[in-house]
Amino acid sequence: MSKIRVAVVGCGSISKHRHIPEYAVNPHVELVAFVDPVLERAEGYAAQHGGKAYADYKQMLSEVKPDAVSVCTPNYLHAQVSIDAANAGAHVLVEKPMATTDEEAAAMIEAARNNGVYLMVGHNQRYMPPHQKAKEILESGRLGKVLTFRTSFGHAGPEGWSIDKRESWFFRKPEAIMGAMGDLGVHKSDLIRWLLSDEVAEVASFIGTLHKEGTDVDDNAACVLRMKSGAIGTLVASWTQYKGGDNSTVLWCENGVMYIGTDPDDQVIVELRNGTVEKYKVGAMATNEKQTFSGVIDAFVESIVTKTPPLITGEEGRRSLNVILAAFESQSTGRSIKLN
Ligand SMILES: NC(=O)c1ccc[n+]([C@@H]2O[C@H](COP(=O)([O-])OP(=O)(O)OC[C@H]3O[C@@H](n4cnc5c(N)ncnc54)[C@H](O)[C@@H]3O)[C@@H](O)[C@H]2O)c1
C-alpha cells in the first residue's frame, strides 16, 4: 500500500511535540508539506523530514493535494482550514477545541461528510494510559454507577508552552476566542463525557480573567455539570496554577471511589466500599514539561489505513465544545444552561 501523504498546517508547539514526531515514526506516513506564515518554522521541518514548506495553506492544498492534514493553527482558523482541507479531498485531524462556535463545528462535519473524508478531533486525554485504565475499570462495572465527580486541568498558562510565549495568539481574543476553557476545559468536558459514557445535560459556571495581564480571554473557570444520567460534578480549568498544576479526576461511585492522576506513583487508585484497594501504575499523564506519545496521530492514521471511522469524530468534538460554549453562556447570563 502506498503511504499516506500528510501535511501539517501550523508549525508551533503541538506540532513540534506531538504531530510531527508521531507522524515521522509512523510507517504508513510520508510527511509531504508543512505550513506556517512564519515560513522558517515550516522550512525547518521540511529540511528535517522532507516535503515542502509553505506560508499559505491554500496554496499547499492546491499544489500538494495531500491525503491527510493536521490542523494545528490558532483556534479561530480550525474550521476554515478543516473545511478547505476536506474540500480538497483530505482527511482531517483538527486540534481541540475543534471550532469556536457550534455552526462552525456543524459546517466542518458536513464538509467531511460531503467529501467522503474522515474528521477526527485531537482529544488526546482519552488516550492517556490512566484514562484508558479508568475507562476499563468503569466498564467492568465493579464501581457501579458514577454519582458525583470532579475533573480539573490547570497549569501556569500558555506563555510557558506556545512557540510565541507571552506574545502568543493564546492571549489574543480574536484568534483564541476562548482562553483556559478552550485550552484546558474542553479536554475535561470531552474526558468526562467519554469516561461516563454520558452527556452533559446542564451547566452552570463562573468564568473570569483573574491574573493574566494584557488579555481579556478567560484564565480561570469553575463549572458545575449535571449529566443526563443524573450524576453531578465539577469541572475546573485554570491558567494560573503557577505551582501545583492539576490534571486529575475523581469519580465517586455506588461501590467506591476512583482517583485518576492524584498520585504520581499510582496513577489510578480504586477504593471499594468493601475495603479492597487497587493501585495501578500505568504510566504518567502527559504534561507540558514531560511529553509522551499522544496516541491520537496513530489512531488517525489507523482509521485511514483500515478505512474505519475514527473514535473521536467531529460529532464527539462538537458535543465537547458545546459544553464549553454553554459554560460561557452561563457566565454571561448568570443562569444555568441546558444542553440538548
Ligand atoms: N491536544 C493538546 O493537548 C493540545 C495542546 C496544546 C495545544 N493544542 C491546540 O493546538 C493548536 C495549536 O496550538 P500550539 O500550542 O501549537 O500553538 P503555538 O502558538 O505554539 O503555535 C501555533 C502556530 O500556528 C501558526 N499559524 C498562525 N496562523 C497560521 C496560518 N494561517 N496557517 C498556518 N499556521 C498558522 C503560528 O505561526 C504558530 O507557529 C491550538 O488549537 C491548541 O488549542 C492542543
Commentary on this structure:
49% of the residues are buried. It contains ten helices and 15 strands. The N and C termini lie far apart (43 Å). The strands form two sheets. Strands 14-13-12-11-7-10-9-8-15 form a nine-stranded mixed sheet. The chain folds into two domains: 4-123 and 294-310, NAD(P)-binding Rossmann-like Domain (Rossmann fold); 125-288 and 321-338, Dihydrodipicolinate Reductase, domain 2 (2-Layer Sandwich), CATH 3.30.360.10. It is globular, with a radius of gyration of 20 Å. With 340 residues, it is an alpha/beta fold. It binds nicotinamide-adenine-dinucleotide.
CATH top level label of the largest domain: Alpha Beta
CATH level 4 superfamily of the largest domain: Dihydrodipicolinate Reductase, domain 2
Structural domain count: 2
- Radius of gyration, Cα only, in angstroms? 20 Å
Overall morphology? globular
Bound molecule types: nicotinamide-adenine-dinucleotide
Mean model confidence by pLDDT: 97
Per CATH, the architecture of the largest domain is 2-Layer Sandwich
Class based on secondary structure composition and strand pairing? alpha/beta
What is the oligomer described by this structure?
single chain
Poorly predicted segments: none
Task: Report the count of strand segments.
Answer: 15
- Tally of helical runs: 10
Residue share in helices? 25-40%
* SSE pattern, N- to C-terminal: EHEHEHEHEHEHEHHEEEEEEEHHE
Largest sheet: 9 strands, mixed
Placed side by side, the strands forming the largest sheet appear as: 14-13-12-11-7-10-9-8-15
CATH topology of the largest domain: Dihydrodipicolinate Reductase, domain 2
